[in-house]
Design a protein that fits this description.
3 domains; 3 strands; 5 helices; mainly alpha; 177 residues; elongated
C-alpha cells in the first residue's frame, strides 16, 4: 500500500511537470510560469473585489439592522400584543402556553405588554435579619435520614404553601380576563 501511494504521487508529479514540456499543436507548451502568474493574479483580483463587495453589503445590512432595532426600541408602537393559549385538562388543571393544545380546544388570549406589570420575585427579609426570617423553623443541620419526621413535616408544609400560592395566582389570572 505504501509503495502504491509513492507510485501514485510520482505519476502525478511527472504529469504536472510534463505539461511544462509537452507542446500543443500550435507549438506552445501547455503550461508556462507566466500564464500561471497571470491567472493567479486575475483570481486574486476577483477574490478581492468579491470580498470587498461582500464586506460592503455586510456593513450595509448591519447598519440597517441596528437602525431598525434602535427605531423599534425608541418607538411606542414597538410593543405588540402577545397571543397565548389557555386550556383545562381532564383533571381540571389550567395550562397556559404559546402554542394551542394539541389534544383539544384552547382559548386564545391576547396579552397587552402595557398591561403587564413585572415584579421581582425575591425575598430580601433574610438579608435584613427581620423577624419573619428569625421565626422560620429551622431544620437540624444534618438530618438523621430522609425519613426524619421533621424533614417530612417541613416538606409537606412547603408543598401546601406552594399549592396555595399557585391557586391564588391562577385565580388572579382568571379574574384578569
Amino acid at each position: 500500500m505504501k509503495y502504491f501511494a509513492y507510485l501514485a504521487i510520482m505519476v502525478l508529479l511527472i504529469s504536472v511537470a510534463g505539461l511544462f514540456y509537452l507542446q500543443r499543436p500550435d507549438g506552445q507548451t501547455w503550461l508556462t510560469s507566466d500564464e500561471i502568474t497571470r491567472q493567479s493574479s486575475g483570481i486574486k483580483e476577483q477574490m478581492i473585489s468579491l470580498s470587498s463587495d461582500t464586506l460592503a453589503r455586510a456593513v450595509k445590512v448591519v447598519s440597517e439592522t441596528s437602525q431598525n432595532f434602535l427605531e423599534s426600541i425608541t418607538s411606542d408602537d414597538s410593543q405588540v400584543a402577545i397571543v397565548i393559549y389557555k386550556w383545562q385538562d381532564k383533571q381540571g388543571q389550567w395550562h397556559y402556553s404559546d402554542r394551542p393544545n394539541p389534544d383539544g380546544k384552547s382559548q386564545q388570549m391576547i396579552l397587552d405588554p402595557n398591561d403587564i406589570t413585572v415584579v421581582a420575585a425575591e425575598d430580601t427579609a433574610i438579608l435584613k435579619g427581620s423577624a419573619k426570617a428569625a421565626n422560620m423553623p429551622s431544620l437540624s443541620p444534618t438530618p438523621i435520614s430522609v425519613y426524619d419526621p421533621v424533614v417530612i413535616k417541613q416538606l409537606f408544609e412547603d408543598a401546601e404553601q406552594v399549592k396555595s400560592t399557585l391557586e391564588q395566582r391562577t385565580k388572579a389570572l382568571e379574574a384578569a380576563q
